[in-house]
């Protein structure tokens, strides 16, 4: 049974800044609980192939995914490699007035194991909330708001 969950947050940063954070897949283990490792295997003009390990309690899911980057509005991370039938993590970044952006993340996960699927079905909503909260904290840690025009690119702290 396919698990689908979506979450979002509005940030006082530019779409480009949010995109850069979301596209920095190798840094996910630094700020996203559950991401054990992420390593770029190869790069292409519009994306990359990534070897990832995600932890689900005592379980570790190791897989290779493809990330397609559509700067600055969308990132599509997908895999059909075991243990998944389908893994899809889609980032959508849209500008919001007067300045800033809305970051939405949608996950679709279908595992080959029924036991792991049940665990994912129960854990995914909380994991997605944690993901967007950690992403938002990382953005605030990396960029400083610029006052009224805070959607302008900030500088790393």
Give a summary of the structure in a few sentences:
The protein has three helices and seven strands, in the order βααββββββα. With 157 residues, the protein is of the alpha+beta class.
Mind explaining what this structure looks like?
The protein is α+β, with helices and mostly antiparallel strands and 157 residues long. It has a single domain, classed as 2-Layer Sandwich (Alpha-D-Glucose-1,6-Bisphosphate, Chain A, domain 4), CATH 3.30.530. Helices cover 27% and strands 45% of the residues. It contains three helices and seven strands, in the order E-H-H-E-E-E-E-E-E-H. The chain has a seven-stranded antiparallel β-sheet. The radius of gyration is 16 Å and the shape is globular. The N and C termini lie far apart (43 Å). The model is unreliable at 145-157 (pLDDT under 50).
List the main descriptive attributes of the protein structure presented here.
Alpha-D-Glucose-1,6-Bisphosphate, Chain A, domain 4, alpha+beta, 7 strands, single chain, disordered C terminus, 45% strand, seven-stranded antiparallel β-sheet, 157 residues
CATH class descriptor: Alpha Beta
Roughly how many Å is the radius of gyration?
A: 16 Å
CATH 2nd-level architecture: 2-Layer Sandwich
Strand order of the largest sheet: 1-7-6-5-4-3-2
Average pLDDT for all residues: 89
